[in-house]
UniProtKB/TrEMBL annotation:
GO terms for biological process: lipopolysaccharide core region biosynthetic process. Pfam families: Glyco_transf_9. It comes from Caballeronia mineralivorans PML1(12). It is a peripheral membrane protein. It catalyses: an alpha-Kdo-(2->4)-alpha-Kdo-(2->6)-lipid A + ADP-L-glycero-beta-D-manno-heptose = an L-alpha-D-Hep-(1->5)-[alpha-Kdo-(2->4)]-alpha-Kdo-(2->6)-lipid A + ADP + H(+). It comes from the Bacteria. Pathway: Bacterial outer membrane biogenesis; LPS core biosynthesis. This is Lipopolysaccharide heptosyltransferase 1. Signal peptide: none annotated. Its EC number is 2.4.99.23. One of its GO terms (molecular function) is ADP-heptose-lipopolysaccharide heptosyltransferase activity. Keywords: Cell inner membrane, Cell membrane, Glycosyltransferase, Lipopolysaccharide biosynthesis, Membrane, Transferase.
Length: 337
């Protein structure tokens, strides 16, 4: 095996949680060149993994929004770059039209994709001449690792290795000193995923009483205003300035605790080895949750948002290194979806 292409286009959380596949491939094929094709919006995160040799990116999301000629030229250039190499195997572990088109355009002898019932979009099937096995009964993240390992005939270490190395910042962040930082990611991509402001405030006050300094990140003006509402109810809480993804990653890395919704940056906290609690309200904990027993745990579930007591219990578990029933469920795939 000389050259491998991974196709996982979006989104932030999925890109982060796919990094262990790279580590698995690197152990199985130490001398192989491993490339990755993704949307340009997430390419920098992949570059944080030194085991990836080349990141192929195109501004697909940006073009969809703006339809600019410059973005179209960048996409055309990225296709030329993609086709400049021949691959022994192309692994589409996304399974939608856009990833399938990339897999099809790549010069790959074997192009793997999911079986029809496991595809995100059925039409993606046109791109593949090989198929992964039936999707295993486990969470989405381990499922990707199992699919690739079974297809290429290797075994993997159950402990995922994310291998992310943050680049240095040109200007260091100014963060609160003198107390451990608890970062609360209250923002979500959809209103149905939100957890109420009063519950965030109660959680923040409990952590403040334990000696933590609460910081609140945001990405949009609406999220900033919501952060200010929470901060007004939590003594000493700080609403951070708007941060880039890299700046936010450094802030996460400097935090003693991260609590947040099922979002990409909370997946990043888990990948960076922070003590992390992920809250679910509208998506499946068993399918998309995080679990590192005694360090990361998911709480709540699809249409079953947790109460404050459950979140505080989860926080206690990651701060003391104990394993809750919820953590065991996600780790073993016992939660249904």
């Amino acid at each position: 095996m000389k050259r491998i292409l991974i196709v996982k286009v979006t989104s932030l959380g999925d890109i982060v949680e796919t990094q262990p596949v790279v580590s698995d491939l690197r152990r199985a094929f130490p001398s192989a060149k491993i490339d990755w094709a993704a949307d340009a919006a997430f390419a920098d995160i992949i570059r944080w993994n030194p085991a990836v040799d080349r990141v192929l990116s195109a501004p697909l999301r940006k073009f969809k929004k703006a339809r600019s000629w410059a973005d179209l030229k960048d996409i055309a250039a990225s296709i030329g770059e993609l086709r400049a190499e021949k691959y022994d195997v192309v692994l589409d572990i996304h399974g939608v039209y856009k990833s399938a088109i990339i897999a099809f355009l790549a010069r790959g002898r074997r192009r793997y994709g999911y079986k029809n019932r496991d595809l995100g979009e059925l039409g993606a099937a046109f791109a593949y001449n090989k198929r992964f096995g039936p999707r295993p009964r486990t969470d989405a993240w381990r499922g990707m690792r199992v699919s690739v390992a079974d297809a290429l005939g290797y075994t993997f270490d159950e402990t995922p290795d994310f291998n992310l190395h943050l680049p240095p910042l040109a200007t260091p962040l100014e963060l609160p000193q003198g107390a451990p930082i608890a970062m609360l990611f209250h923002a979500t991509s959809a209103d149905e995923k939100k957890w109420p402001v009063d519950r965030w405030a109660e959680t923040g006050r409990s952590l403040t009483a334990r000696g933590y300094r609460i910081v609140l990140p945001w990405g949009t003006e609406g999220e900033r205003k919501e952060g200010e509402q929470i901060a007004a109810l939590v003594p000493g809480a700080i609403v951070l300035p708007k941060l880039s993804v890299t700046e936010c990653a450094h802030c996460i890395d400097a935090s003693a605790l991260v609590v947040g919704m099922d979002t990409g940056l909370v997946h990043l906290a888990h990948a960076l080895g922070r003590r992390t609690v992920m809250i679910f309200t509208a998506t499946s904990r068993g399918h998309f949750g995080i679990s590192a027993p005694g360090r990361s745990v998911s709480v709540g579930d699809h249409h079953a948002p947790p109460d404050v007591a459950s979140v505080l219990e989860a926080i206690e578990s990651v701060l003391t290194g104990t394993v809750t029933p919820a953590a065991r469920d996600v780790a073993t795939g016992a939660v249904s979806w």
